[in-house]
Amino acid sequence: MADTLIAGGRVSTWDLRDTGPDDLLELREIRQTGNQALRNAARTLLFGLGGPEALGEYDLALVRRLIRSKLGGEVPVAMRGCEFWYAIPTTDQAAVLDTFGLSDPEPVTMSLGTEIWNQHYHGSGHQRCARIYVSPALGGWTLVFGRPSDDQHPADVTEESSWSIEPREQYQAMLANEKVRRGVDRERCTALSRRFGAAHQYWRSHGDSTTSWCVAEKGELVRFYDVSAPEESVGELAAENGYLLPHEDTPLPDGWADDIEHTENPLDWQREWVRRYRRLKAELGLPDHCNADTIAEAISVHPGKIGPHTRVEGHGVIALTRCGLEYGHPRTLLRGLTYLPAPDRPSPLDEDQT
Q: Which domain of life is it from (predicted)?
């Protein structure tokens, strides 16, 4: 794996699944005797295997010194794939850490915090809920990426291992768990607003159309919306005016797509469907759908829209949840301290792809 990293190849945390304590000894030996390239690769793998503790005092001090040197002059870069986050109108990071029950905060650049957070999906079990990235204050808002351990493991959620093997009953159990989690998220957002005056929570899936947002002020739930359960909605926001909600159908004429010919290549039909949908929507002056991105950009700070224009106060930290304290740092490969978001890939349904 060290050789692969040196050659510029791809190594992921999944590649570390069969490694263990003996590998730490070998990597520490490489750190002492290898050439410069091997030593750098070994440091990356050491952190991936055991977190900061695995680096040793010298390497940990080196990494911390490098991070400190970059904190002052870092320019914010728009984040991609953030999916779930809280936005809290405060610059008091210590209070945020306390409220979320986080410990062992390690200062990180925004680039490094983003890289670490984007890898939290790569593990299994408590690898996904052990660590949270808390941003610096961005335009007066502190962003928190992740849930505290109590919210990740609410008492009323049933474990998948206890589910029936019958598909319909599995589906019902999954829906019941999702309902519990929505309630937990509403309660968390409301509790945060008692301490900070207001709190927002956003979810925007980049794999499907799942989205939700929650806004609380002074201990009261002002707005809750989840596309999966619109019947649980509470309140409304001025930022939603002029948009359709995600579960609402665009009011197009009946049968508007019935005559589109189905061909052997399904993309042909889909592209024509998209072209006609866009044209009719423009001709009829129909509104767009809003989602968590739309609302966050309108009423707080959207992590995908930060940049050189964003006012930054303080610095971000990576901190451990209760799961992190119990099970250790999740495995994370630190490939560098500079984060550049991948460019948006064009959809095969876009006009310029036909």
A: Bacteria
Please provide residue 183's backbone torsions phi and psi, each rounded to the nearest 5 degrees: -65, -40
Q: Provide DSSP, 306-319.
A: -STTS-EES-EEEE
**Locus of tokens 């609302």:** 295
Q: What is the mean pLDDT of residues 274-279?
A: 92
The strand pair at 220-226 and 131-138 is best described as: unpaired
Measured between alpha carbons, how far is 216 from 222 in angstroms, rounded to an integer?
A: 5
Closest CA to 213 of 291, 318, 143, 140: 291
Rounded CA separation 313/308 (Å): 13
Q: Are 108 and 71 in contact (CB under 8 A)?
A: no
Sort strands 84-88 and 220-226 into parallel, antiparallel or unpaired.
unpaired
Considering only CA atoms, which of 9, 11, 3, 65 is closest in space to residue 331? 11
Phi, psi of 53 (to 5 degrees): -65, -30
Cα 304–Cα 13–Cα 36 angle in degrees, nearest 5: 100
State the CB neighbour count (10 A cutoff) for residue 215. Answer: 26
The per-residue pLDDT for range 51-91, each reduced to its tens digit, is: 777 887 888 888 888 888 888 888 888 887 778 999 999 99
Reported as type and span, the H/E element at residue 53 is helix 52-71
- Tell me the whole-structure pTM to 2 decimals: 0.86
Q: What are phi and psi of 87, to 5 degrees?
A: -125, 120
pLDDT of residue 132: 92
